[in-house]
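Render this sequence as a predicted structure.
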Amino acid sequence: MKKTTAQLQEMLKKCNSLNEYINDNEISFSNKKPFEILNDEIQKRKLVKADVIRRSGIERHYAYQILSGTKTPSRDKLLMFCFGLGMTAEESQHFLLECSAPLLYAKNKRDNVVLFALENKLTVIEINELLYELGLKIFE
């Protein structure tokens, strides 16, 4: 049975053998690559890839390369997919964590704009306008 993050952390603190810990908990570790997580998320939400890509603002050919696993997405591309998937800020944080990407940080001005945009269901075009107005790096 898969264990929660908290359970794994507690067990790790108490373990005497790292090898034994890893062997006993192999099923609980996430071994999926970002493209697998993305495709699972699209399927789970019963969305059409073309619609997600269009809403993400990622160039179509490049987005399909990400979804096929031939290109590794940057954190910004993962965030753009979050917009395409219609995720909330909380869902996006979990998604980034699962993809082993840095979380959105509340003490970072740009990350705050992204969090605001996710919570308020803004489009990538709308967030880029906000970022541009504030002199911050836009999503490309």
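Summary. Residues 34-44 form the longest helix (11 residues). The mean pLDDT is 94.
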